[in-house]
Amino acid sequence: MAYKPKRPDWVPPSAGSEYTTQIVEGVEGGHDGLRDQTKPAARPPGPRRRRLTIDEYVQGVLAGDRNVLAQAITLVESNAPAHFEMAQEVLRQLLPHTGKSIRVGITGVPGVGKSTFIEALGLHLCEQGRRVAVLAVDPSSTVTRGSILGDKTRMERLAQDIRAFIRPSPSSGTLGGVTRKSRETLLVCEAFGFDVLLIETVGVGQSETTVRSMVDFFLLLMLSGAGDELQGIKKGIMELADGLLINKADGDNKIRALGAKAEYNRALHYLAPSTEGWQTRAYTCSAANGEGVHEIWQVIELFQAQTQASGVFEKRRRRQILDWVYTMVEEHLRKSFFEHAGVKHIREEVEHAVVEGHMPPTVAVQTLLKKYEDG
Ligand SMILES: Nc1nc2c(ncn2[C@@H]2O[C@H](COP(=O)(O)OP(=O)(O)OP(=O)(O)O)[C@@H](O)[C@H]2O)c(=O)[nH]1
Ligand SMILES: [Mg+2]
User: Fold this and answer.
1) Distance CA 77, CA 85 (A)
2) Given strand 217-222, what is the order of strands in its sheet?
3) Domains of the chain, each with CATH number or no CATH
4) Whose CA is nearest to atom 30 of ligand 1?
5) Ligand 1 atom at shortest distance from the alpha carbon of 203
6) What residues flank ion ligand 2 with Cβ within 5 A?
7) If pLDDT is split at 50, 70 and 90, which confidence band does 227 have?
8) What pTM value is reported for the model?
């Protein structure tokens, strides 16, 4: 009979091929000192790992137990309705212990050096005795599943540091789903006691806005001379940034990077600042050799000091939390509308009438909403 490999118990249910470990079949007769796999075990094999209770999750996270931290995040990321309720209660109890870290978002096009930079910055902060968590928001990984493994290997040194914690992006669902999970993971990490949260996202448009809405400082990594055709995209994203960091300013590229910095600084004068009272500027660094990494951290610290003194920091966090609430309300309403049986029933007919010009769009809206509201 062909042997079908089993997955170990600790692999999260939603995990994909990034978990390559599998339980393999034992050899006949058993290895030296091992049980004969062909005969039943004397005792049934150990139970699946027991689900923790709400209290165990909360106490474990607050006590700084990394295993519990990982399990709590798995709970938060779970799509099972039973886990959802439990996760919400865990979060409710952790909430009073959150909010004390600085949240930094990092974005940039693929290959700009985000992972290299995060590792360099993370190690620098760990050396200073800070505890750093790295999270990723990557809705595209639902399709590719690629970046997760790449990042784990790329941040090898940081991953080994006991003061650091790296969590790949939740890899299932829509951007909305990924966002909720990431925000909640962020809160769990804060309650655990990380001082700095670095949140990486790929530069693919929508996810930047999302990450901007959950961080205090938003850093855009760039390359010098990355082609004028990109300028259009950059402007919108540049307006979200609190700092522009031109990476790979090393070797032959250094002079060009300094030129680009001056050019961007001129351009930034004409853009609306992302944060009230803070002038976004361009800086250079080499994530590869570490030059400029300490300096950009000083910029972030200055930003924190200034915005906390002016009250802008707190104001933004309060607005972000309300935005989060209403984003979830909107998602809920949209879902409930499109899943409504009555709406589904008449939708095709209404759509047809509208596109054929028999029904004005406004009437279509009224018809659909009336159906929805009538229950
Ligand atoms: N010369 C030089 N190379 C760098 C620097 N930073 C990163 N690189 C290289 O650029 C390549 C891409 O770096 P990553 O850190 O993987 O870039 P990324 O932005 O995380 O890429 P994605 O995860 O694909 O979005 C790697 O080969 C790095 O070694 C730098 O400061 N200088
Ligand atoms: Mg990367």
Assistant:
1) 12
2) 164-167, 132-137, 196-201, 102-107, 217-222, 243-246, 281-284
3) 50-97 (1.20.5.170), 98-309 (3.40.50.300), 324-373 (no CATH)
4) 248
5) 25
6) 114-115
7) low
8) 0.81
